[in-house]
Amino acid sequence: MTNLPRVLAYLRRYWLTVAGAFGSLLLVSAANLLSPQVLQYAIDQGVTPGNLQVIGLATLALVGIAVVRGVFTFTQSYWSERASQDAAYDMRNDLFRKIEHLSFSYHDQIQTGQMMTRVTNDIDQVRLFVGSGFVQMLNAFVMLIGSVAILLAMNWQLALVALATIPAVSVVFFTFFRMVGPRFRQVQQKLGMLNNVLQENLAGIRVVKAFAREPYELKRYGTANDDLLDETLAVRRAISYAFPTIFFISNLGTLGIIWIGGLQAIGGGLTIGELVAFNTYLIFLVQPIITIGFSATAVAQADASARRVFDILDAPIDVADRASATDLPHLEGRVTFEDVTFRYKGSDVPTLHDVSFVVEPGQTIAILGRTGAGKSSIINLIPRFYDVSAGACAGRWVRCARCDADEPA
Fold first, then answer.
1. Where in the chain is the domain with CATH 1.20.1560.10?
2. DSSP class of residue 406?
3. Please, what's the b/e burial string for 104-138 (b: 16 or more CB within 10 A of its CB; e: otherwise)?
4. Could you tell me the pTM of the whole model?
5. CATH no. of 4-313
6. In what order do the strands lie in the sheet with 390-395?
7. What is the phi/psi pair of residue 147, to 5°?
8. What is the pLDDT of residues 268-299, one digit of tens each?
């Protein structure tokens, strides 16, 4: 999960909104943890002795707790969503800005559909984690810590029975995360491949129809769609194995509490109100564990998507400005290649080798050669879409590598 802290760093600009969401979350958790105490008071001091006044006060208290919980659940949800949308907005802008400045060598290696998936679907997966999954996990941890503290204070023996299930659930949870993490990356990769096939067909639909390639393209799209389906089903199979196991282990703790707590209540060591409250806190203990388990899916998916996003944001820019880069002066129109050698990124074979020529202003020349001889490479070197591997390329009296890459030619 090394990429998720970088995602959360986007929230620093919106710390006030995040603070409001976190404060609301704490108030909601406090209201939830307080309600079993009121319920215990109502049973032991109201129901058992038949005191209607206590029952009435407890009822009003529970209504007040419900109102507080409802109000701050709304503020927490709104502020969390606002912060996540703002973070996604900044991330989309950063990603698009980086794509605009990436060198041609990077675009040569990544498909357009993959790029579109990262800008849209991957960022949306990250946003869902920030606005929902991360908040749910925070709430789960707060409820878990609060429930454990109250359970230990009420009856440490029963608390140990309840806590005995946590190590087993943790093992299942971390095993699940390690298993599905790579799978989620594959799902996003397959989705990008599917989008790439779609993008290529939409962009070249006239060519597809002109050469009657519809059957071939349908088969190609179907293969990509099948690959995505298989990978998605593999993830769902892992989920279907993990969560029933978590539920089963959690229910074992509930059975232990009912058995041992029932014996203590019969023996007079525990009141009915305390047993009811304890069982409610046990639910508060189990629910966060289940929530964390469900959140594992969102965490794994968000981490996979964040990794794909940061792969672009961290990509080096091959054609970068030198420290001595200057703005383009008045252009004369002369182009000079001096012993230029050029190879594409990832290739050991040079496309151009020791190429030299001069084109004077107003002169018209033709560049001839077989396919792959380097004609387009020569044209792309002049506006500095690529940097030469050796030699020098001067365009219009100015050495291209010495000019600001953002200056229009």
1. 4-313
2. T
3. ebbeeebbebbbbbbbebbbebbbbbbbbbbbbbb
4. 0.68
5. 1.20.1560.10
6. 352-359, 335-342, 390-395, 398-399
7. -65, -40
8. 777 888 878 877 887 787 778 777 766 777 77
